[in-house]
Amino acid sequence: MSANVPTLTRAVRDAVRAALRMPGNGTAGTEAERIAGQVLSELSRQPAVRDALARLDHRTNAEPWYQSRVTLGALVALVGGLYALALDIADGSPPSVEALTSQLTAILGAVTVLYGRWRARKPLGG
Prior knowledge:
mainly alpha; 5 helices
């Protein structure tokens, strides 16, 4: 579910309530809630609304971590670097300078990417 759905839901409910309170639209409060619920239900089925929410999630970095390609790629690099380092340490001989440099570069790069991704408030160029 989009992180922006609660905001959109409040906005639609408020708009429906305001429209129903206008003169000539005499509708009881419970009826306004029922109509707002129907409007929200219909909106959630519209592909254009789902697409707009997905775009809004991307623009605001609101998608869940497991849907972020950047996060998933960084996690793969982190696991790979840690695994290679663990294999070198487990065999009993010290890793070569080249291997250690490569492993630490992958690990530190992945950690830096994860930190940057999770601290970002908006995408680059957005």
